[in-house]
Specification:
- By secondary structure, the protein is an alpha+beta fold.
- The chain has helices at about 25-40, 45, 65-80, 145-160, 170-175, and strands spanning about 50-60, 60-65, 80-90, 95-105, 115-125, 130-135.
- A hairpin with a 4-residue loop joins β3 (about 80-90) and β4 (about 95-105).
- α3 (about 65-80) packs across α4 (about 145-160).
Length: about 180
């Protein structure tokens, strides 16, 4: 990974780490970009840090491949009127990079507020491109085949409802950096 955080317009550059945890510059870039994504601040540049066949997984989706995980991130802007990170702390600088994250979301239209406590795992390859991000709400992912059916349906449905910019220029016009 050759791009610096500043080239990617990463907003979250003040990465908090637990005592004894250190990150190299590439890891800081990955963590900062993932924090931006969770804050509803996606961009094509940030998503280029992901492999084409990467996976995003949380309790409501399993999005495999660029055409499925990109809309998940752009969909946050459409679904929530407010996204506020209340806390984050990187707890391991290994592979995966692990992080505790607490975020407040307000659902557009109905104003319902939800606070989600997550354990985030960021898996990367040897070139520091993201292979997988797991967002474990309350430290867990569903493990039943019944729940997984709905997670897979969501991964297919969201890309039909959420458009992803086709170019950096289009992305910038939408206010994404």
């Amino acid at each position: 990974m050759s791009q610096a955080s500043s080239d990617l317009n990463i907003e979250n550059t003040n990465i908090k780490t637990a005592s004894g945890v250190s990150l190299n510059e590439q890891q800081k870039t990955l963590v900062g970009s993932v924090l931006d994504l969770f804050a509803g601040r996606p961009s094509l540049k940030k998503l280029r840090l992901w492999n084409d066949d990467a996976v995003f997984e949380d309790p409501i989706t399993v999005a495999k491949g660029r055409n499925r995980y990109e809309p998940q991130w752009y969909g946050l802007q459409a679904a929530f009127s407010e996204i506020e990170r209340l806390h984050h702390e990187v707890t391991s600088g290994g592979n995966p990079i692990t992080m505790d994250l607490r975020t407040r979301y307000v659902v557009k239209g109905i104003g319902k507020e939800q606070i989600i406590d997550s354990k985030i795992n960021i898996f990367h390859d040897e070139t520091y491109k993201i292979k997988k991000v797991e967002d474990k709400w309350d430290g867990k992912l569903p493990d039943s085949s019944f729940q997984n059916v709905f997670r897979n349906i969501n991964a297919v449905t969201v890309p039909k409802l959420v458009s992803v910019p086709k170019s950096d220029e289009e992305d910038a016009k939408l206010g994404n950096q």
